Amino acid sequence: VLAGEKKIAFAVTEPGGGSDVSAFTTTAERKGDVFVVNGGKTLISGALKADFLLTAVRTGGPGMGGLSMLLIETDRPGVSRGPVPGLQWYNRNNGWLQFDNVEVPVSNLIGVENRGFAGLASQFNIERFSGISATLAMARTCIAEAIAFARERQTFGKRLIDHQSMRHKIVEMIQRLKAAYAFLDILVWRFSRGETPVADLALLKVQATTTLEHCARESLQVLGGRAYTGDNRVERIYREARIFVIGGGSEEILRDLAAKQMGL
Ligand SMILES: Cc1cc2nc3c(=O)[nH]c(=O)nc-3n(C[C@H](O)[C@H](O)[C@H](O)COP(=O)(O)OP(=O)(O)OC[C@H]3O[C@@H](n4cnc5c(N)ncnc54)[C@H](O)[C@@H]3O)c2cc1C
User: Fold this and answer.
1) Per-residue b/e over 92-128, b at no fewer than 16 CB within 10 Å?
2) For atom 29 of ligand 1, which residue has the closest CA?
3) Tell me, what's the ipTM?
4) Mean local confidence (pLDDT), 228-249
5) pLDDT band, residue 209 (cuts 50/70/90)
6) Which of 7, 12, 13 to mutate to test the pocket of ligand 1 (most atoms within 8 A of CB)?
7) Active site includes 252?
């Protein structure tokens, strides 16, 4: 996987829900030197092409204490997968997974049995960091497209960018983006010092994704009807921005996580 020759997917969300990690029902029952896995996952990015699945499974009792992380090879007997019907995302490799009596060696356990929640949380931190960077890059793209168009387009005898209300849209996008990048810089610095500021990372994900939503909306407004024609980057970002607010911990769940971490 590290050499880029094999693919891996992070399989957490189940048909019964993704936010409430403690309610997951995919089980891995230990029988001798194997776990026997039964259950299903859905909406998993990369599921259709993955060679391996880093999978959240229930090895113990109910709640977060009974979860473990298991590496499951997708070519094991009993693993089936397919596309999620009607999924509106360009990542066509997103899919569902079904496990029917899949035998997985105990040596595939990642971390400590029944302490998988800690691993899950740390994996989510990594996912959030990379998601935040991608999110802010998309916001930058929106701003760049809006500026380029506003410099060219003429309305009422002058360039769009020469209309004050258009300039305000653009500088407000830049203002929000710069604030999010400044927040990101601080967290990168804190992580590089060995800290794990979970609450701030949760808040930054909310900040970055809502900044993206704002920039997608406003840049699309600058482009006007043009945004709906041809292969347009802003239109695509606008359409897909919502998933970044939901995946990897939704806005509501992350605000709540931050509140709990702060002891509120
Ligand atoms: C394109 C795409 C890619 C994805 N990739 C992956 C992947 O690679 N791996 C993976 O495991 N999952 C993946 N997911 C799933 C994603 O992580 C979940 O959609 C997300 O965690 C939310 O879970 P849910 O959809 O089941 O919503 P639910 O948990 O059913 O929640 C529905 C809504 O209610 C809100 N909500 C829930 N509980 C509370 C509460 N206590 N208080 C307030 N509000 C609440 C949520 O924020 C959400 O807005 C992907 C989803 C999509 C659409």
Assistant:
1) eebbbbbbeebebeeebbeeebebbbebbeebbbebb
2) 19
3) 0.97
4) 87
5) very high
6) 13
7) no
